[in-house]
Structures are given as structure tokens and as C-alpha cells.
């Protein structure tokens, strides 16, 4: 029996590769005839770089860049010299996970470090860039990235703006003359895990600002500042991308990637699955096991289990989800090709215990699942 195992990470517990290994261990305990192929995935958020490196065999490189608060940190990126493709994960430089809760500052956090990583890729000779946009601590519309790549943002007095989204309220001039000329020869794909526009009640500030430290008053301020940025950008470029689905990803980085880098915005899980060759792997699979920390109604927006299920459904392969938690609305996943879903906890359990036992619980659930599936699959 051939089983394709392709989970995302289990947040605060296991990276995707470790989760896939645990599921495979349990599946193989169910019988000597079990062939379990591990293919860890991600949907564009934290951990996407690891999934892309595992899928492509690209080199892991690192550089010293600014974090979301302007402090120095080491950030990894990927380089595939044969195809001259660079892999940059926004969360490596400007991720929310790197900040303590009390450090989160949606008003002033910056994507400057992401631009520094892109510059590293250009220095290496990149002709193609895969940029993953999940897990950001920022709400600056990607202006920090632009500044790192040579753009200048000035107020009405000709002064350079300070970093962060709040300062964009004073934006008067967007000077692109110094933008790195090598960007014109760079093919960019940006992986997004949401379809939100830049502005409004479904926009970057309103939906994602609060988790980055924004108060209700901050959200109003940031939305107005991003609207100013969008207006000045439209006047400078001659086109407006603020309503584009995905423009609100990563605090507006989706907008900047499309408007200034010419990026194609793609659902993150589709991009990662394409790099991993999941469609080819499905040809021989009899069952798919996927999973993540929580399956809920929001998973339909482009999270890994639903993305896997949609592709597997087209090939007639059943998909089972193992999730740390089944939250309200998870049943909608049945309509997207998921055959069944199971929570990991084997009884009342504190969160700390569940996180510590995640690998053990995944292996146990996987073994039981595959044992049942083998019996049910008999002629």
C-alpha cells in the first residue's frame, strides 16, 4: 500500500519534516507492505523555505539582515544555481515568530530585511525569485523592502520617511530612480495564503493588524496610511493594484510584490506543491495523509490540507487530515475533497502536553488510521 504523507508544520510543536516523519513511523507500524513517502509542505507561511529546499535540493544560504524592528539577525534563503532560482521566505527576516508579544509593533515594523535578502539573491545572479509571504510581523505595504532595493519615500518637505506603515500617512513622493536595475530581469512569483485586498474591512490592517500589535485606533491609522501609499503608487506607476486578491498578504507585501516587482501572486500551497512535484507523486498513491495544527473554516482560504485535498480529489485519491485541533467550521473541508479528519488528543489534555507529545500522537493516530484503511480496502 502506497501512502503519500504531506503535512504542514504543527505550530509551536513540529516543523513539517518532523511531522511527516512521525506520521510515516506510525503508518509503517501498521504493516510490512506499507510504503510511506514523506513530502513535507507549507502554504507560504513560516516553514515554507524548508519545504522548498527539501523539494528542490536548493542550497541553504544565510545573510545578516534587519529584523522587523531593525535589529540584526541571521536569515536563511535558498539558492538553486542550475536554474538561477532564489527562494526567499519573508518570515525569515520579518517574521512575527521572532518577536515577543510585547515587541509587536504594527505601526513601525519593517520589511527592510526582506529587501536585503532579495539583494543577496540578485548578487548571486538570480533570474527567478520565489517569495513566500506568510508569517509577517509587518504592516508597511512592503515599503521597507522597496527602500532596501533602492527606492526612496519622502514627505512633502523632501525628507525620507521613517520605517513602518504609520509613516506612510505622510508620503508625498515615491522615487523609484534608484531601484535596483537588476529587478527588471527577475521573474518573481509570490506565494500568498490569503486572498485579502490591501484596504478596507477585509484589508491588511483590519484583518491582520491586531495579531501584530495594532489597537483598533492603530488599525484605522494604518488603513489610511496604506491608502495614501496606494494612491501615490497608482499616480507613480499609472495603475492601481490595491484591490487585487492577495494584495493584503503580509501587511501589504502582496501589493508591493505585484506593483513594483511584477510578481505573479499564487496560492502558497499550489506553488510549494508544484515545486515538490506532488501531482506526479499522486499518480502512485492509494492514500494521502496530511495535517496541520488546526483545521477550521478558514482553512478553505488556501491552507495546506485543503490545497492537498483539492489536487488529490482531481486524481481520485482519498485524503485524511490529522490535526492538532478541529475548530469550528472544519466540516466545510469535506466539500473540498477531504475524506476524513481526526484530532490528535487521546483524552483531556493541556496544551503544553499536547505540544510536547505531538510526534507521539501523530504516530499513534497514523498507525490506527492505516490499520483501519487496510481492512476497509480489502476486496
UniProtKB/TrEMBL annotation:
Q: Which GO terms describe its molecular function?
A: glycerate kinase activity
What InterPro entries does the annotation carry?
A: Glyc_kinase_flavodox-like_fold, Glycerate_kinase, Glycerate_kinase_RE-like, Glycerate_kinase_sf
Tell me yes or no: is Kinase among this UniProt entry's keywords.
yes
Q: Name one Pfam family in it.
A: Gly_kinase
Q: Which domain of life is it from?
A: Bacteria
Name a biological process GO annotation. organic acid phosphorylation
Q: Which UniProt keywords apply?
A: Kinase, Transferase
Which PANTHER family has this protein been placed in?
GLYCERATE KINASE (PTHR21599:SF0)
Q: Which family does the similarity line name? A: Belongs to the glycerate kinase type-1 family.
Instruction: Please report the name of this protein according to its UniProt entry.
Output: Glycerate kinase
- Biological source species: Halomonas ventosae
Amino acid at each position: 500500500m502506497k501512502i503519500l504523507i504531506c503535512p504542514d508544520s504543527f505550530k509551536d510543536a513540529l516543523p513539517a519534516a518532523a511531522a511527516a516523519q512521525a506520521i510515516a513511523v506510525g503508518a509503517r507500524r501498521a504493516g510490512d507492505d506499507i510504503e510511506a513517502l514523506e513530502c513535507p509542505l507549507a502554504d507560504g507561511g513560516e516553514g515554507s523555505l524548508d519545504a522548498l529546499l527539501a523539494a528542490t535540493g536548493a542550497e541553504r544560504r544565510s545573510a545578516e539582515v534587519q529584523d522587523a524592528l531593525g535589529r540584526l539577525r541571521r536569515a536563511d534563503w535558498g539558492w538553486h544555481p542550475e536554474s538561477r532560482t532564489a527562494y526567499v521566505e519573508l518570515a525569515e527576516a520579518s517574521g512575527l515568530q521572532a518577536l515577543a508579544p510585547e515587541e509587536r509593533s504594527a505601526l513601525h515594523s519593517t520589511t527592510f530585511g526582506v529587501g536585503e535578502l532579495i539583494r543577496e539573491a540578485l548578487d548571486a545572479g538570480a533570474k527567478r525569485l520565489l517569495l513566500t509571504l506568510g508569517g509577517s510581523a509587518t504592516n508597511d505595504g512592503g515599503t521597507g523592502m522597496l527602500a532596501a532595493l533602492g527606492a526612496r519615500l519622502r514627505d512633502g518637505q523632501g525628507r525620507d520617511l521613517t520605517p513602518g506603515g504609520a509613516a506612510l500617512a505622510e508620503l508625498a513622493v515615491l522615487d523609484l530612480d534608484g531601484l535596483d536595475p537588476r529587478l527588471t530581469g527577475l521573474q518573481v512569483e509570490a506565494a500568498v495564503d490569503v486572498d485579502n485586498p490591501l484596504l478596507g474591512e477585509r484589508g491588511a490592517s483590519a484583518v491582520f493588524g491586531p495579531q501584530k500589535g495594532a489597537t483598533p485606533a492603530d488599525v484605522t491609522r494604518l488603513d489610511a496610511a496604506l491608502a495614501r501609499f496606494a494612491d501615490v503608487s497608482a499616480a507613480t506607476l499609472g495603475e492601481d493594484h490595491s484591490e487585487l486578491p492577495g494584495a493584503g498578504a503580509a501587511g501589504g507585501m502582496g501589493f508591493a510584490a505585484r506593483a513594483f516587482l511584477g510578481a505573479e501572486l499564487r496560492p502558497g500551497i499550489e506553488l510549494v506543491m508544484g515545486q515538490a512535484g506532488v501531482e506526479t507523486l499522486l499518480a502512485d498513491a492509494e492514500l494521502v495523509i496530511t495535517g496541520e495544527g488546526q483545521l477550521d473554516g478558514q482553512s478553505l482560504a488556501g491552507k495546506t490540507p485543503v490545497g492537498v485535498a483539492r489536487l488529490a480529489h482531481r486524481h481520485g485519491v482519498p485524503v485524511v487530515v490529522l490535526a492538532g485541533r478541529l475548530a469550528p467550521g472544519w466540516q466545510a473541508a469535506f466539500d473540498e475533497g477531504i475524506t476524513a479528519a481526526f484530532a490528535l488528543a487521546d483524552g483531556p489534555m493541556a496544551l503544553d502536553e499536547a505540544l510536547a507529545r505531538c510526534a507521539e500522537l501523530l504516530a499513534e493516530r497514523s498507525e490506527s488510521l492505516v490499520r483501519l484503511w487496510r481492512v476497509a480496502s480489502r476486496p
